[in-house]
Amino acid sequence: MPSALVAGATGFIGTNLVQTLLAAGVTTYGLVRSTSTNRLRVEALDGFRPVPIDSYDTADLASALAAVEVDVVYSVLGSGTSHAEDRWEVLLDGNIRAAADVARFSAGRARRLVHVGTCLEYGAKADPLVEEDVVAPSSPYAVTKAAAQLLVAHLCRSAGLEHVHARLFNTYGHFEGQNRLVPFLLRHLRAGEAAELTAGKHVRDFTFVTDVTAALLKLGSCALGDGHGAFNVCSGQGVSVRQVAETVADVVGFSRDLLRFGARPSQPDEPPYIVGSYSRVHAATGWQPAIALPLGIELMAAEILAAWDRRSDR
């Protein structure tokens, strides 16, 4: 039976990945901090094997990763997905130092490392992005993710550890942070409050989280040629932020009049168009996305609204 360890098991991507791995019959370990407010949602999963860790500092990562030997380590740690983490010292530590430590300490403990990056590593382009496109990040978060990719690749090659770099595009779904677009919209629309948004003209590639974790599962075992590779994990479909917001309103049955487009300024470093091609991951694994945006939002909204209703009934 294959085995895997998820570094970052209690996060948005990590929790969904743990569920996907367990459903596929993979013996699944995960790093779990005792202070994590989300640890119960993975510890309750049948078959999950938590690896306790006090922090993601270097010494604690070294000790935790030395305790297991697996086929694949999935590195889904990272910082900067919320504005509260958008400080250089946090980004450098969470995106570069921690990623490098996971790569270093996985050598000799695993056959392959699957490291999760971001589509924001690429430079601006008006066509779908492919893996050969130039890496030219334009924000502190993206710069640190791109730097981590170079460092992790070097460490893996030096140690003889197979390395996959998965660039994720606008992943959404269950367990997503409350500050993110769809949960933000659901919270305001459900309360009958206006949702203040940018003009919504930016085009993005929204990919449902179970599609993403299905791709990561396959990237843990596919043939890699020279043992290394970068892969876009995306839907291949571009939609504007405005279209996403309107779809959320339509799916949950609330008026679009509550969507206040243009009430907020756009971020100055936001590229106008980020859409990917998944041709490489499809060729390597046969993977392709299965959940279209309206269905993904419907599934996500049903779970989030039901969870909020349960809390209000207590």
How would you describe what is shown here?
The chain is an alpha/beta fold. 40% of the residues lie in helices and 18% in strands. It is built from 10 helices and 14 strands. The strands form 4 sheets. The protein has a 7-stranded parallel beta sheet with strand order 3-2-1-4-5-6-11, sandwiched between helices. A 3-stranded mixed beta sheet has the order 12-9-14. A two-stranded parallel sheet has the order 7-10.
Q: In whole angstroms, how far apart are the ends? A: 41 Å
Give a count of the beta strands, DSSP E runs of length 2 or more: 14
SSE run: EHEHEHEHEHEEHEEEHEEHEEHH
Strand order of the largest sheet: 3-2-1-4-5-6-11
- Overall, the morphology is globular
How many individual helices? 10
Compact description:
The protein has 314 residues and is α/β, with parallel strands linked by helices.
How is the secondary structure organized here?
Layout: E1 3-7, H1 12-23, E2 27-33, H2 39-43, E3 49-53, H3 58-65, E4 72-75, H4 88-106, E5 112-118, H5 140-159, E6 162-168, E7 171-172, H6 181-190, E8 195-196, E9 203-204, E10 207-208, H7 209-219, E11 228-233, E12 239-240, H8 241-252, E13 259-260, E14 273-274, H9 279-285, H10 293-313
Parallel strand pairs: 1-2, 1-4, 2-3, 4-5, 5-6, 6-11, 7-10, 8-13, 9-14
Antiparallel strand pairs: 9-12
Helix pairs in contact: 1-7, 3-4, 4-5, 6-8, 8-10
Which tags fit this structure?
alpha/beta, three-stranded mixed β-sheet, 40% helix, 314 residues
